[in-house]
Amino acid sequence: MDTPISEPGFTGMGVGAAITGMRPVIDIMFGDFLTLTMDQIVNQAAKIHYMSGGKMKAPIVFRTTMGASRRSAAQHSQS
Q1: pLDDT at 68 (0 to 100)
Q2: Is the pLDDT reported for residue 50 higher than 90?
């Protein structure tokens, strides 16, 4: 089944998976879309250790591309 790409959606799922003990690697296709995922990264993944009193962690890797090397025009490369 084809589904729409939703960076906030799969970033949130990755953070949830990390909290449960998995080690997800989230691939954000274009660096420009990182801003869409900031709530999950900054307010959830980065603070879960503090908010849980040190009982929970979110080991997660975010991977993306930046710059003009992909020739992705202004909307996808900030170049």
Answers
A1: 62
A2: yes
- At residue 73 the predicted structure's pLDDT band, cuts being 50, 70 and 90, is low
Query: Which residues, 6+ apart, have CB-to-CB distance to 43 below 8 Å?
Result: none
pTM of the model: 0.80
> Measured between alpha carbons, how far is 24 from 13 in angstroms, rounded to an integer?
9
Could you tell me the CA-to-CA distances from 15 to 38, 39, 49, 69, 73 in Å, in that order? 12, 11, 12, 29, 30
Q: What is the 3-state secondary structure (H, E, C) of the chain?
A: CCCCCCHHHHHHHHHHHHHCCCCCEEEECCHHHHHHHHHHHHHHHCCHHHHCCCCCCCCCEEEECCCHHHCCHHHHHCC
